[in-house]
Structures are given as C-alpha cells and as structure tokens.
Amino acid sequence: MVSTSRRATPIWRLGFNDFTIQLNHRQLLTATLNRAGVEPALHTAALIALDKLDKIGVDGVVEEMVSRGVSRDVATALLDNVGSGVITSFPDGEGAAAAANLAEITTLCESTAAAGHVKFAPFLARGLSYYTGAIMEVAVPDLAGSLGGGGRYDGLIGMFLGENVPACGFSLGLERILVVMSERKMFPPEVAQSSADILLTVFDAPTIPEVLKLAGELRAAGIRVEVYPEPDKLGKQMKYASSKAICFAAILGGDEIARGEVTIKNLDTGEQQSVARAAVAALVRTSA
Hints:
Layout lengths: L19 E6 H11 L6 H8 L2 H15 L4 H10 L11 H17 L8 E3 L13 E6 L8 E5 L5 H4 L6 E5 L1 H10 L14 E3 L7 H13 L4 E3 L6 H10 L4 E4 L2 H6 L1 E6 L5 E5 L3 H8 L1
Parallel strand pairs: 1-2, 6-7, 6-8
Antiparallel strand pairs: 1-3, 3-4, 4-5, 8-9, 9-10
Helix pairs in contact: 1-4, 1-5, 2-3, 3-4
C-alpha cells in the first residue's frame, strides 16, 4: 500500500529582519531624465552615474555625469529633480503610468511577507539598459552594496526569440549574504562550523602549482581544504582563515618546497611547526 500523505517541506529562514526592498521604475527615471534635459543618447551614461550615488555622493555623481558628456547644469538639475516627490510629480504620460505601477506593486506587497519592507528609492537606477519597468534591490544597514536585485526586462528575451516575452528576474548575492550573516553571527550552531580544516596560503606566484598539488593530495586524504585565491600578505591570509574559523593554515614557500616540508600554524593556539609534506594530512586529522 502506497501512502498518499505528503511530508511538508521544511522552511529555512536566514533571519534577516531589518532588510529594505528598495523599489523604483526605469520609465519613471526616463521621464525624470527627459524633464531635466538629459539627451536621450546620454540616458544610459546618466543612469550609470546615478546608480553610484550611495558610493560617491551627489558631487561625485555630478562630476561623473559631466565626464560622460552631460552638462553640469543638466546634471545638477537632474539631481535636484530626483527626490521623494518625483513619484507624484507626473500628472500624465510615461512617468504617471510608471508611478501608478509602483503604487500597485507596493499595495500588493502589503499582503505578503514583504509588508513593511518595501521603500520607494528615487535614486535607485540599476544601470543596465535592458531593464524596462520596475527595478529593485535588497539592502541591509551594515552593507554598502545590496544583497540582491533585479527587475522587469520585457525586451531582453525577445532579442533572441524574435517575439516579445514579458519577464521579471531577481538574483541574490550569496557571498554577500554569507559575509553579513557571518559578521552578525547569524548561523545556528549546527552550521556555524568551519567550511575547511586547513587554509593553504599562497606565498607568491611561482609556488601556486605546488600549492594546488598539495591541495589535491590533502583532499584525496579526506581533508577539507581551502586555497587562498591569490598571493597576499601572510598576515591578511591568516586573518581570513581565523574569520572563517579555520583551525590550520599552511605555508608552502620556496624554502618549504625545497625541503619537502610544509609550515603549519595552529590558529587556535598560535603554535607553528614544520612537518614533512606527507605528514600534513595526519597532523590535521589527529588535531581536529
């Protein structure tokens, strides 16, 4: 007899409660650009500059627009025009339709888990030309960038299919999410453990082939290994290992390679020793 009951899929919550879904509309921005006097050919350049407002400030955006061909007077007028009142400042036309679309989205969100988190962001631009409608980004207070973003891009798929296909997409910045969760200590104890047993540092470019070879040897022995992505100061690499709760760091410089040894540092105790290359896996395994 086959059971027809279905087990409910568990819901995993990351634990973010202070996030904001910033919302804007490309057609609203287009109407604002037109009203400020930005030439259509310079719209993309202006939006790319505007999208950097949180990083370089108003003066920086104006200077970048000027460097991209927008006159200083027009750039200043644009920054003056883009503000919290822009959503109600278009009585008709393209801007009014975009504002109505944003109002509808905001109202619908009040019936979802996004309620209370959606905020109109007049300076949000997402400087990619394929966006055609609403655009959005997810932000948290202690991160300069965003945790995710997306929007409508109705014309993009049609470029390849030859017919119009409405589309809306959203992507999450997994690495940024993990960084913020790690800094806030949001991981539950059962998953807060290190993702690796040992970090292989990279002393300089000529040693990279041997570092990669050692990584393969240790993985074959059942050791979880992370390789630092590029040559860097050893102190910075050690700090990176500590931030990820990795217990051991391995140094394989030219001297170690010549001796057939690896310098191992225990980041919990500070103890450092040189061991035969073939003995590294056993040392890490017995000390874990």
